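Morning F.,

Quick status update on the modeling queue. The single chain you submitted on Monday has been processed. Sequence for confirmation:
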Amino acid sequence: MAIRPIKVMFAISDTGGGHRSAAASIIAALDKEQSIQSTIVDFLRTTNFPGLKKAPEIYDYCSKKHVWLNNLFFKETNSIGRINALTKIVYSQSHYSIKRTIANTQPDAVVAVHPLVIGLLQQTRKESCANWPIIAVITDLVTIHASWATPGADLYLVPTKEAFQSLIKYGIPYSQIIYTGFPVHPKFLNSKLSKKQACDELGIKSEPFTVLLTGGGVGAGNIGDWVHTLKKQCPDKQILVITGNNKDLYNELNNRKVHSDRLHVYGFVNNMETLMAASDVIVSKAGPGTLMEGVTMKKTLIVTEAVGIQETGNIDFINKNQLGYHCPTPIEACTIINETAIFASCGNLTYNDTIPINGSQNIANIILETINTTIAINNPMKSQEEHIFIGA
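Structure tokens below.
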């Protein structure tokens, strides 16, 4: 008799690309378990609640042009009491849509990869008398918004020791928090491409010292100014620019491209591991995903700015752990890049190997263990069958 697959729902919001990327990274670590059926749901959009259903668009707008609005929301909602109050308001208006989403997915476990979904999931589970576990995966490294500590999840998986301590201060019990590391996609850990192989795959030259410049999924930051300064101050360097979903920036830089054979412009990409392998230095805003991908691939990092309060602690994290440099201006970055190129030619670059880089696999293992435990408690006979089936 065929046994149905175990269903895991990843509840996210497409505010930037980080939450979906983290979910996809964990799913990739689960893939070898053929019995796992994973679904990613933009949970805030499915609420149909005014504002929340447009959260991705609002976040993109604020990140590109009005970061102060993002920071204002962060400050005004940064308390457990306010988050709980907001959750009650949203749930009272959106419970039918939320329950419909859960019913369509029929999850055996729910992984919350966005802070604002934790309370909504807890309310749904309570009112539905369901028993699927809620596992919260925190994707901010240091500056943890109170919503990440919303009561109701069974486990809170954190990327850093700093995040662990923040949740303790918010009142989450020690027993519910596990330090797993950040969920970087396994392809970054498993990448064996040399710089030459990566450059050949991209169709670019491998000889020049290469700088990868990215503004995250939304193409935030003054990327145009950075490119102009890099071309002027580092004329012998090859520059790879990722503009994400910022089409205006992509078109603007492509118009400049005719003036340089060392400038290569990319939009939203799915081969970041290849672009990183082709690079010697990564210049990025303080988004946790890109930073931890760079750490995993042992690349020198230059952090430009924090786009939003939630990214501010990431700069301190990089500095404290000697993983790179904070250069808020292009001129400062160019000095570091030129110096790094000299060190690289002498073979003197070193990397910090103390940061865990197998977060996705750690998280995947915990999800499987939690599902097994839930099955065992709720249905001992079913547990015996599926224990063998999922290879736990």
